[in-house]
Design a protein that fits this description.
Distance between the termini: 16 Å
Number of domains: 2
Shape: elongated
Strand order of the largest sheet: 11-10-9-8-14-6-15-18-17
CATH class of the largest domain: Alpha Beta
Bound molecules: ligand AOF, zinc ion
CATH superfamily of the largest domain: Dihydrofolate Reductase, subunit A
Number of helices: 11
Mean pLDDT: 95
Structural class: alpha/beta
Strand content: 25-35%
Length: 360
């Protein structure tokens, strides 16, 4: 249905959009390419939250008059005034001749209305080119804007015989340097990382992306009774914002320059995973990486709230271990990556959904 050239230009727009990863949330990543007489005359992407949208940057960057050009945009142009004016208006004002979009904007304020506005102005719009890739790119934004909760990834490091550790009192390092770098890169791509109280206490982790290029995500700790010692790196180093989730009864209005407390509903003695996600969604967190420990991952698994897993498997067995990885990659999971990482092995799998979050 779409020509090779159309796919080529949309592929370029998707690549540009990706450059915004880690910087635009809670907005979507968006790329735009303007084409005239078969050549690209302008390119742009949404670079940072609150900044100009992809279409506006592509128009500004145009080396020729954009009037009469075709726009390839990874997301339906917005028709609302948010932090910036509507892109539909800019495209109409600049006399863009035709628009290709990869997917509709799942934001209910825009969804379909942006396309209608362009069509009403006499601009033909073709929707759906490379839409699977676009949907994958903005899966976190799509989930967050339609449900109010973040996309949840779980990171699991396991031994060859499937154990995450010996017991909850000891810290064991299982995987190698390459896996660690990979996991740090992953941290740069999410809005926040979360660990449970015991992991914060036993490992005293920094939860930064220091072995990768990119920015540090927010750090979330589930500490139901607010008993973690203030000596931990998370409270002291100022490397990234830290959010402590605690129960409503233990909540106190405390805040330092980079650390704040938020209360969350408790159920059966623990913070409710559903409510944790709602609380973080309200904070504008669209993607959450749960890094452990075993108990926290298990509670999200039991509540069926994990969308995606990164399983790093080390080459050696762990003997006399108690903490079995609770997630088995079955046919309910779609494997996206499956390859070696040094002497470890990585599998990335996504939970199969009964129906898509957003159908075109
Ligand atoms: C586009 N192009 O590059 C992006 C869009 O507050 P604002 O003005 O930044 O608007 C945010 C909303 O705009 C966001 O929720 C989403 O619906 C859309 N994002 N739209 O045409 C872009 N980033
Ligand atoms: Zn816009």
């Amino acid at each position: 249905m779409f020509l090779t050239d159309d796919k080529k230009f949309m592929t370029r727009a998707l690549k540009l959009a990706e450059l915004g990863k880690g910087y635009v949330s809670p907005n979507p990543m968006v790329g735009c390419v303007l084409v005239k007489d078969g050549s690209i005359i302008g390119e742009g992407y949404h670079e940072k939250f609150g900044g100009p949208h992809a279409e506006i940057i592509a128009i500004r960057n145009s080396k020729k008059d954009p009037s009469g050009s075709t726009a390839y945009i990874t997301l339906e142009p917005c028709c609302i005034t948010g932090k910036t004016p509507p892109c539909t208006k800019a495209l109409i004002d600049k006399d863009i001749q035709k628009v290709y979009i990869a997917m509709l904007d799942p934001n209910p304020l825009v969804n379909g209305k942006g396309v209608n506005e362009l069509k009403n102005a006499g601009i033909p719009v073709h929707t759906g080119i490379l839409h699977k890739k676009a949907q994958h790119q903005n899966k976190a934004f799509t989930k967050w804007i339609t449900t109010g909760t973040p996309w949840v990834s779980a990171k699991i490091a396991q031994s060859a015989n499937g154990y995450m550790g010996i017991d909850s009192e000891k810290s064991v390092w299982l995987t190698g340097e390459k896996s660690q770098k990979h996991a740090h890169q992953l941290r740069t791509q999410v809005d926040a990382i979360m660990v449970g109280r015991q992991t914060a206490l036993v490992d005293n982790p920094k939860l930064t992306a220091r072995k990768a290029t990119g920015r540090n995500p927010k750090r979330i700790v589930a500490d139901t009774n607010c008993t973690l010692p203030m000596t931990l790196y998370l409270f002291q180093d100022g490397e990234a914002e830290t959010i402590i989730l605690c129960s409503e009864e233990k909540f106190e209005q405390k805040q330092t320059t980079f650390c704040k407390y938020i209360s969350t509903r408790k159920e059966n003695g623990y913070l409710s995973p559903e409510h944790i996600l709602q609380t973080l969604g309200k904070e504008g967190i669209t993607s959450l990486l749960i890094e452990g420990g075993h108990k926290l991952i298990n509670s999200f698994k039991q509540a069926d709230l994990i969308d995606e897993v990164y399983v790093y498997t080390a080459p050696d067995n762990l003997e006399n271990a108690e903490l079995k990885n609770p997630i088995q990659i079955s046919s309910n999971w779609k494997i996206r990556k499956d390859h070696a990482l040094g002497s470890d092995h990585l599998i990335v799998a996504e939970k199969r959904k009964e129906k898509c979050l957003q159908e075109l």
